Amino acid sequence: MILRRVIEHVKTQNWVAVFLDFVIVVVGILIAFQINAWSARQAEKQSLHVALERLRDEIQLNIGVIDENSKLHDDIAAAGHELLDAIRDPELDEIPMVLIGTVFAEGFTSDYSTGALTYVLNQQPFHNTENGDLRRIITTLPAQYLDALEDERVTIQLLDRQWVPYISQYLPVETFWNLVNEKRDRAGSFQSEDGATIQDVVSLDEFKQLASTLRFQNEIVNRIGYQDLIVIEQRELRKVLGQALALIEEELE
């Protein structure tokens, strides 16, 4: 319709009308571009908000994991301190099997969910956001998770390569672990003879001699130190996750 009007105005040499028609066409095109750009920005904003909502839920889940696992790591460190006190007690009258099992053989790594974080980081609208604080802190989260996991992984390696092999030289693993599990009201992990006791394979005096060695006590101290490092890293991660959570909530308002 506009084109037909332009042709008619050209035929009548009505140049003012031609100019006005041209202006109308240009303005219409500009408005269309603006509408498309606005619609695209709104779509990107909505997509980012959905991604941030998922990330918020994921962070809340991981904070819960930290709160639960930090206590477990603290419990292992506490068992180490309790074991040191026990072996230094001249009136020690039994082998502290559960404490030994906790210190020399227990360990785990935390299972953090990071799928939503990866999704957000792969979104271009996130990198274009004007909220620089939000962008910076979320970008650091992958490294923060790795830092928190590093000491846990090192501890697992030490358990496999050092602590379990060391204690197994002196306390036969089958009998020892069946008795530890019995103390904890769990099913035994190994088969052993009925009625076997730790005294059947190592006497209290033999254990006291082992416990008096510098190596035995140093291994306990080392385990306590690693547990303390793990808890420090987890607390730092929790702090950063809390900051990220607050910024996400602010962005979603």
TrEMBL record:
InterPro entries: DUF6090. Pfam families: DUF6090. The chain crosses the membrane at residues 15-38. It comes from the Bacteria. Keywords: Membrane, Transmembrane, Transmembrane helix. This is DUF6090 family protein. It comes from Hyphococcus flavus. The lineage of its organism: Bacteria, Pseudomonadati, Pseudomonadota, Alphaproteobacteria, Parvularculales.
